[in-house]
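Section 5.1 Outputs to date
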Amino acid sequence: MGNLIVKADPTFGGGALNVSGVGLTTEGVTTDFQLSLNSSTFQVQSAGDVQIASGDVIAFNGIGGNVTVAAGSGLSSQGGSGGSVALQAGDGKGEDRFGGNVGTGGMISLKAGNAVQGEGGSIVLDAGSSAIGKGGSIVITSGESTGELTGDIRVSTASSEIASTGLVSIMTGSSTNSSGSIFIGSGNASEQAGNVLIGAGQSSGNYAGAFVRIRAGDSSSRTGGLISIVSGAGSKGTSSGSIEISTEVAPNVGDSGSVYLLTGAAVSGASGSILLSTGASEDGLAGNIVMSVGADNYQQGGSIILNAGDSMKARSAGGDVVITSGAGTLSAGTISIRGGQVLSSDDTGIGGNVTVTGGSSASGGSVLIESGSSMARSSGIVVVKSGDSFGDETSGGILISTGTTSSFGSGDLV
């Protein structure tokens, strides 16, 4: 069969191609179809499906034909703008109240080509660049709804039962000026706002669980980036949100994980401090700080150890441990240090000791027990008292003695 050629007349012009007709759909309904090609428009309206496909190639090292859909450029420097490319699926108007199926909107599917041994084809969304102004944006928005929920947005790599799954990387571009920020947040709501959940996947077999790491940025000349975790504010008369940091319960035989709170080491400067403080309150009770070890079913309960830092420099002093109760306008707070109570009714149980000992050295450290001074009245009392006995034996004694020595006399009692 010969070719069909439509071209403009050299004298009178023309050359437009218009094809139109009436066809039947698979349901037997008449519908128009049209193809129009002229100097300003190329329009195709089908009575059924529209398929655009390039040709296959069976030659050695052959590459299948490309399909390019491109809008025209605005070449004028006086307000020229490029044309747009719109891909839009059809609407679904079906409603179950009219007896048919519930219509769904048409789907737009972008799928790259498969490969046997090489890498599968990629899908690249690349917004336009700008020589002077801001580059184009990529906006992905799910569909609206006036009845139920708006549509979801899901970004995931493909699942696999044989190979490892791919990486999901979300990052802003590098810049010689300032790089962009990444914001992950749920939307505001008149009722319950959505949660933000970040969780690693579960491992199987002899593999450790995946970790979640949040790391602030480095700086080559200034202070490193801050990691700030702030709970949400509450309305008037309610509390602000809590912050909970905990390891998971160990349901089987094994230990639960530890919680480490430490600052980084420093080579030449000072390492960072750890501040553990509750907030001030203008018209209420300030929050407590409670440090406690969990109960166990073992031979000995867990300990609380407070160690000040050592100093390894010559002729330096180690760090202090300072415990100070709060000041008040009527009376200051009390410091209470007491040994633990025996929980059983066994008569042989012994309550916990309280030991205050100065440090050992060439000259041992002193132990000072001193009551508070007074500016107007009597100073405080120092009471040394053994505990009461409610059994058949005597109460405990009080022993005050100086230490022994191998060369000179022992110390005096004054």
